[in-house]
Structure formats: structure tokens, C-alpha cells
Amino acid sequence: MTGFDRPRIEAAVAEILAAIGEDSARPGLAATPSRVADAYAEFFSGLGKDAAAELGDAVPLETDKAETILLRDIAFRSICEHHLLPFLGMAHVAYLPGEKVVGLGRIPKVVDTLAARPQLQERLTEQIADTIERGTEARGVLVVLDAAHTCVTTRGARQTASTTVTMAARGAFTDPAARAELVALIGRGIA
């Protein structure tokens, strides 16, 4: 990952521990700065990556009668840029192919790449839709994210059962009837 400064992260974590009144050298915390740096390397591995490249080469569709392709329940996690706390959820991604399709395993890679950077759920939803639309030249794209934010569930309001739903539609799926049909297929009762 470009720009990842492991020693600086470790020093910053040690400073945070000292700032809350802890001894970063005590046995239970001695390896914490290193562990946090490992976690951050994973959490932010999407920085500097081109998510569209994760789609690989789209292949020509051998029919002009292509119907919607829907991948449900793509598990994802990201880090909210406001508090640097995780949000975890499910992504549902549908696209109506134009002349090309991509391998089904490619779409979760796009979600993972875009989620692996400091994010806002609203922006993440839009970025996934834009990447799928451009990368597949789809006639329509719908992305629905349903996530629990630990900044809501564990601090402040502490709404432990709360989730946030965001949606982005492109092309044919901006039509309310087409979108409603897909939302029903997702099966979560999201309107």
C-alpha cells in the first residue's frame, strides 16, 4: 500500500495509550501498537487501488436478452472516517448487462476494495454503483448497503439494533418500478 507508514502508526498508538493514562509497555499492551498497525494495513488496503481493475476483463455477452444479475448478501466492513470506527454490513449489487458481463466473484472484490479505505456509507454506495456501471457498461445498476455503525451501536446513542440503509441507482434502475422489483428480490423489506 502506498504511503502506509507502519512505524508512525505504531508510535501514534503508543501515544494514544499514554494519553488515556495507560502504560504501553505493560505486558497486555506491549504488542498493541504492532497489532493495530497490522489491522490498519488490512482496513485501509484499498487506498491507492483502482477498484475498476478488480472487475478484470468484461466478456462479451452472447445474447441480447440478458436479464438482471443480482448478488445478495456480500459481507463487507469499512472504517467510518468520522470516528475511525468500523461499520459492518451486507451489500446487494444488481446490474442489467449491456453487451458485457464480468465474473461473479469480481463484484465482491470491487466492494472490498472500495470499503478498504476511510469511508462514509453514502459515498461507498455511490462509488460501488459508479464502478460497476463504468466497468461493465451496464444498462442499469442498483446498489443497496445495510450496515451497523459502531459509532452508533457502541458510543453516543448506543442504538445496538440500528442499521443504516443506503441505495444508489443508475440507468434502467432509476425507474421506481424496476427498483422496487429488485428491492423485493433482495428480500430485506427495504423500500
Describe this structure in words.
Helix 1 (6-19) packs across helix 2 (32-43) and helix 3 (106-115) runs antiparallel to helix 4 (121-136). This protein has helices at residues 6-19, 32-43, 106-115, 121-136, 150-153, 176-186, and strands at 59-60, 69-80, 85-96, 100-101, 118-119, 140-149, 164-171. The chain has 191 residues and is α+β, with helices and mostly antiparallel strands. The chain contains 6 helices and 7 strands; from the N terminus they run H-H-E-E-E-E-H-E-H-E-H-E-H. It is 35% helix and 25% strand. Strand 2 (69-80) and strand 3 (85-96) form a beta hairpin.
Write the layout of secondary structure elements.
Layout: H1 6-19, H2 32-43, E1 59-60, E2 69-80, E3 85-96, E4 100-101, H3 106-115, E5 118-119, H4 121-136, E6 140-149, H5 150-153, E7 164-171, H6 176-186
Parallel strand pairs: 2-5
Antiparallel strand pairs: 1-4, 2-3, 3-6, 6-7
How is this structure best summarized?
The chain is α+β, with helices and mostly antiparallel strands. Helices cover 35% and strands 25% of the residues. The protein has 2 domains: 6-43, no CATH class; 51-186, 2-Layer Sandwich (GTP Cyclohydrolase I, domain 2), CATH 3.30.1130.
